[in-house]
Amino acid sequence: xxxxxxxxxxxxxxxxxxxxxxxxxxxxxxxxxxxxxxxxxxxxxxxxxxxxxxxxxxxxxxxxxxxxxxxxxxxxxxxxxxxxxxxxxxxxxxxxxxxxxxxxxxxxxxxxxxxxxxxxxxxxxxxxxxxxxxxxxxxxxxxxxxxxxxxxxxxxxxxxxxxxxxxxxxxxxxxxxxxxxxxxxxxxxxxxxxxxxxxxxxxxxxxxxxxxxxxxxxxxxxxxxxxxxxxxxxxxxxxxxxxxxxxxxxxxxxxxxxxxxxxxx
Amino acid sequence: xxxxxxxxxxxxxxxxxxxxxxxxxxxxxxxxxxxxxxxxxxxxxxxxxxxxxxxxxxxxxxxxxxxxxxxxxxxxxxxxxxxxxxxxxxxxxxxxxxxxxxxxxxxxxxxxxxxxxxxxxxxxxxxxxxxxxxxxxxxxxxxxxxxxxxxxxxxxxxxxxxxxxxxxxxxxxxxxxxxxxxxxxxxxxxxxxxxxxxxxxxxxxxxxxxxxxxxxxxxxxxxxxxxxxxxxxxxxxxxxxxxxxxxxxxxxxxxxxxxxxxxxx
Lengths: 265, 265
Fold this sequence. Notes:
Chain A is α/β, with parallel strands linked by helices. Chain A has helices at 12-15, 22-33, 48-60, 80-87, 96-106, 115-118, 156-169, 191-205, 234-254; strands spanning 4-10, 37-44, 65-69, 92-94, 122-124, 128-130, 139-144, 147-152, 178-187, 208-213, 222-231, 258-259.
């Protein structure tokens, strides 16, 4: 059974190109290493109807997990909790545990719980808050028809804190799958020359091989070759990746290429 | 009339988190500065059916432009042209102009046009190739029911070359809109304290204001305040952004905050 995942990142700054979406790649990498297959990453604006409708679309594809990032803060344009509630046809309610966390973070410093601060404890009905150790706004999770939805703040270190806490303690189903990859660099072989050989090895072994061009195809051919596989037995997965790597290296040598610095030998 | 845009980035490396999607932010920034409103950025795997189905979804939302990046190369997993053709119910055909470009790039160097190399000239029926000045695989464009689709390679400098060539010479409809933003940094005011004031100014002026937290809400409040607006008259747009900036700065001073280094005065 495939454990699929989707990532939804919310924030106008992603759509104007102001912010590079490093949250998406952090989350994708973390989920991949846990054995999830990330199928789609979507970035949308801070808009209520848009958030609600994309949440519905994603749930229609029934992933095992959806990680949502951004829009949990105190400002007028933070509307992820409300958007998720709307997408699920649930009410937005004051969550007592989240409220306790906010009280602790503001009131113990003598700061009043204004309307903007209280807003961060308004979660979709049935959601469980996830403590934010690196900032204020709590994350939250809820399971809908077998899909774990987890919402994290957009500030990177807060996203990481909430995501790790979720993955380590609250994940409903953990994939029984191990993912492994290795890469190496090749000089002097064009991507289009290596292509038919790689196609043959992929077809025969089922291992994923991708060439990432780094130089210029004809004038200065320089490629990174990535080999990735996943399976239940970590030792077996590593062994398969390494044996395929040796086969590709042998082909590169036959084609007159040279192996550059190996990144993860 | 709103000129909406979508971006579709294709490549397994984006979904495993191996590659940070800097192409998406480059394209988003370029389109935003031209006056487009980027509504959605999607990243998916190199999978034929997935590409075809996402292309259909995007066209169903009728954006003015869709920029697709990645998957135009010579390898077995480069299948963007075929996926777009399938999504449009068009045939994939050998394009004579693209073939001429490949002949020039390979045969003039004494390199044969193998099957893998010829594949890069197979484009959806009716597509116009866009010369790739920075690499081999040509980009292409086609207009479907008023939506400009433009496909670029995934290697960043090749994407930039093809995209610029498209935007400067082949774009069907150019938005008559100018976008402008300024930012400044604030110390000593919590985001939740500034929030109600900003909400009021946004409501009154229609100007977009976003606070980006950079420090820690209660222990070391530090915010970047971004002010953005767009309209037909560049001078008027700048004037509005600057006057709103002064209003927000005045509020910050009243709240006891200090203005840090101004980024674009």
